[in-house]
Amino acid sequence: RENILKTAKALVEDTKLLVSGAASSQDKLAQAAQSSANTITQLAEVVKLGAASLGSDDPETQVVLINAIKDVAKALSDLIGATKGAASKPADDPSMYQLKGAAKVMVTNVTSLLKTVKAVEDEATRGTRALEATIEYIKQELTVFQSSEVPEKASSPEESIRMTKGITMATAKAVAAGNSCRQEDVIATANLSRKAVADMLTACKQASYHPDVSEEVRERALRFGTECTLGYLELLEHVLLV
């Protein structure tokens, strides 16, 4: 646990250098990017070792830890991209606001990782912590879904329909976890919910940009994807409350 906390702290320092590097020389920016890449690799290794130390009889909690480091790595990748876009730009440039937003997400995900690491050893809070992390993850995925960014590829409406089945299964699991209040059921719900909602949002956005889809249908599909996600988030909030 101490190794993870120490390495995460080093990554936060790298993040600060990365953000400030956007306004400095290319050399300093390159050094900050390289340092953060090295630190995230070290952090991934110590988190994997931490997950392994839990033992194979608790795979769901291992998944919670791995998901937490994946979120940090993704946020760092987005932050490096935002830093690249903001390099040498004036303070009021839109890319600077994107950089600040990416830095905020990065800090949120590192904080979430630290909370998860601390909660792992406490069986009474493992499930609730996993659920909190999943709720935060889904909110971040929804923000990406609602952005104007066009997906790299389009998919068929049938694929989008197929992905909604995962939401149905996850909903049933969430209701069961709310009824049982067992930490292991809540952890399993958190892990399943992450994947189900992320898959649904990806498929929904890709289908909405299918060549045969009209502007009106696209808007409706995107609206219903958002409403479905908000409804599911409300369900998870209730499970957390219970």
TrEMBL record:
InterPro entries: Alpha-catenin/vinculin-like_sf (IPR036723), Talin_IBS2B (IPR054082)
UniProt GO molecular function: actin filament binding; integrin binding
UniProt-annotated location(s): Cytoplasm
Domain Talin IBS2B: 6-117, 127-239
The keyword Cytoplasm is annotated on this UniProt entry: yes
GO BP term (any one): cell-cell adhesion
Keyword Transmembrane attributed: no
Gene3D superfamilies: Talin, central domain (1.20.1420.10)
Chief place where the protein resides: cytoplasm
Protein name: TLN2 protein
Pfam families documented for this protein: Talin_IBS2B
Keyword terms: Cytoplasm
Annotated GO CC locations: cytoplasm; focal adhesion; plasma membrane
